[in-house]
Specification:
The protein has no helices and six strands. It is mainly β and 77 residues long. The protein has one domain. A hairpin with a 5-residue loop joins strand 2 and strand 3.
Length: 77
Amino acid sequence: MAIACTHGEPDALEAQISANGRTPGTFSFDPTEAYNTPRWVTIPLVLAAGSNTIRLENPSGAAPDIDVVSVPGAPTG
């Protein structure tokens, strides 16, 4: 899975990401130049065939602003 995100904080922000109720992994997102300059981050995530539920959160603080979530090989339209 690839995520385009932004944040203007001086340090990296973290987000917990999980799919289909599995235990979340914690991922770090480096600062971007500005809120209008997204950075793409690749997240290794195991997905099932068909529909999936992806959860992105940071229960202990700020998380990056998510602009786009892309799943390679997923149908479009």
